[in-house]
Amino acid sequence: MPDTEHTEAISRKDVQHVADLARLALSPEEEERFQHQLSAVFEHFAMLNELDTEHISPTAQVIPLTNVMRPDAAEPPLPKEDVLANAPDREEDQFRVRAILDF
Amino acid sequence: MNLSELTVHEAQDRLRRGETTSAALTEAVLAQIEALDETVRAFVTVTADEARAQAQAADARRAQEGADAPPLLGIPAAIKDVVNTKGVRTTCSSRMLENYVPPYDATVMEKLNAHGIVLVGKTNMDEFAMGSSTEHSAFFTTRNPWDTERVPGGSSGGSAAAVAADEAVFSLGSDTGGSIRQPAALCGVVGMKPTYGRVSRYGLVAFASSLDQIGPFTKDVTDCAIVLEAICGHDRRDATSAPQPVPNWREEMTQSVKGLRVGVPKEYFGAGIEPEVEASVRAAIEQLAALGVAVEDVSLPHTDHALATYYIIAPAEASANLARYDGIKYGYASQDAETMWEAYSRTRGEGFGSEVKRRILVGTHALSSGYYDAYYLKAQKVRTLIANDFQEAFARVDAIVCPTSATVAFKIGERVDDPMSMYLSDLYTLPCNVAGLPGISQPCGLAQGLPVGLQFLGKPFDESTLLRLAYAYEQASGARYKPALTSGAAQT
């Protein structure tokens, strides 16, 4: 268990900052639990530093496909009613959202 | 024999000879679900009425088409609840999508529907496919049909348990770090992750887009080849879909394995492997050698680094993919927020479960300013090293053979509060996804009465060799693994 001397890899402030970036509301209990759990996870990640990767190029995806093109042809979209059927809130044929500006 | 016990090819033979109907087969499978699913809990949604209608339509179509009918016509199947099914609720076992009814079908569903399958239901999983036990489902935990105190594995635990308990003749799952192969091993069925790009991801709810791949759960290797042929193929709606033609795997898998070379990686028999699991896998490898397969030791030196690599890359991609859940166009929406930003934050805080939140936080941190190079870029570079390990091994051998999981099915509750110990469940399955390779798991024995999985990993697009090896082993061992719970569960 973390004692006062031991600095964890992830601080409470880090958790709050990252949760804010990810638009994720956390309870104070969650913040504390995730701080400890994320610290353990990121401490494990440190093992990657033992590998010298200076001259290694990164792999973003594994199959050698580049610039996949398709014809720029119009196709019928999904029916409007089908798309709006899952909307949490709608007004006529539109998704209803909260105001983003104060007037 | 109860019709629900049939494999795809056995059912197909009987249907073709007119000895049974899809309606009868479907009733047998629905009766099995009725009898067992209260205990097993493989399904989030059972589509009994739709299944009966599809079975009737399949029988009518067979009367028309006769011998030309496609191989999966009228076969009852279960689909992991991460694959979009038009008009049938698709939840990802998340509160976020609890009431989401897709307006379109995934490409794999279009393909299976063109075959005329019977959809019996959508299966439980770890929320958004993040987990190794189904304990991270927002709804309930699926039970292992071999011992209901134990997990079925995950994340596709419902799909594996459904096939093991004869609650579906076959099923589909998705595999991002082992989510097909690990539950297949723990439930004693065959599960395959095809090469990245083989199966279209269009309509698969995205977890980690550079790793996700759909694949089958079946009762034997022949069925695996049949289902694989049905779901693979290029799709212009998935930009990472591979243009390679789909082979006739059912035929290719019967070729002799004599002279094939397989490599045994010492890193996959490390500390933590249960002795009985190792003994089962070693015995299976000896059986392969007796069939004329050349067995040699190989090394995959970066195996120990695959876990960290995977748990940076997958959550990083997940944090981006899951940004779409904003409570506006579909899905859960928090009602008590005042402002737009508060609405986003609360919707996501209330709609996602713990493991999903944990991975969004890990991924967001790994991608954030100041940490990107140290974590994400570093992981992508180590990904290259892991892929190179396999490439070097495949210069010498045709396939890798190893255990699928270091342990048999673990007890419910044993690992759920310790993320690191849960993540270690996938140690032997993750590297295959990181490198984009095909992999298959098949049962190779029992340890403490629970199934052990044998895993083959292959070169990209060389599913043929994996199916040959798996088929040859299955034929030679002659064993069929059935949990006691299924015997006489439902009589029709």
Could you characterize what this model shows?
The complex is a heterodimer of chains A (103) and B (492). With 103 residues, chain A is mostly helical. Chain A is built from three helices and two strands. Chain A has helices spanning 12-21, 28-45, 80-84, and strands spanning 90-91, 94-95. In chain A, strands 1-2 form a two-stranded antiparallel sheet. In chain A, a hairpin with a 2-residue loop joins strand 1 and strand 2. The model of chain A is unreliable at 1-5 (pLDDT under 50). By secondary structure, chain B is α/β, with parallel strands linked by helices. Chain B has a single domain (3-264, 395-486), classed as Amidase signature (AS) enzymes, CATH 3.90.1300.10. Chain B is built from 16 helices and eleven strands. An eleven-stranded mixed sheet of chain B has the order 1-3-2-4-6-5-10-11-9-7-8, with helices on both faces. In chain B, a hairpin with a 2-residue loop joins strand 10 and strand 11 (450-458). The termini of chain B are close together. At the A-B interface, helix 1 and helix 2 of A face helix 10, helix 11, helix 12, helix 13 and helix 14 of B.
Features:
heterodimer, A: 103 residues, mainly alpha, Histone, subunit A, two-stranded antiparallel sheet, 3 helices, 32% helix, B: 492 residues, alpha/beta, Amidase signature (AS) enzymes, 11-stranded mixed beta sheet, 11 strands, globular
Topology overview:
The complex is a heterodimer of chains A (103) and B (492).
Chain A: H1 12-21, H2 28-45, H3 80-84, E1 90-91, E2 94-95
Antiparallel strand pairs in A: 1-2
Helix pairs in contact in A: 1-2
Chain B: H1 8-16, H2 22-40, E1 43-46, H3 48-65, E2 76-80, H4 107-115, E3 118-123, H5 157-164, E4 170-174, H6 181-187, E5 190-193, E6 214-218, H7 221-231, H8 249-252, E7 261-265, H9 275-290, E8 294-298, H10 306-321, H11 340-351, H12 354-367, H13 373-394, E9 399-403, H14 419-423, H15 430-435, E10 439-447, E11 450-458, H16 463-477
Parallel strand pairs in B: 2-3, 2-4, 7-8, 7-9
Antiparallel strand pairs in B: 1-3, 4-6, 5-6, 5-10, 9-11, 10-11
Helix pairs in contact in B: 2-3, 7-16, 10-12, 10-13
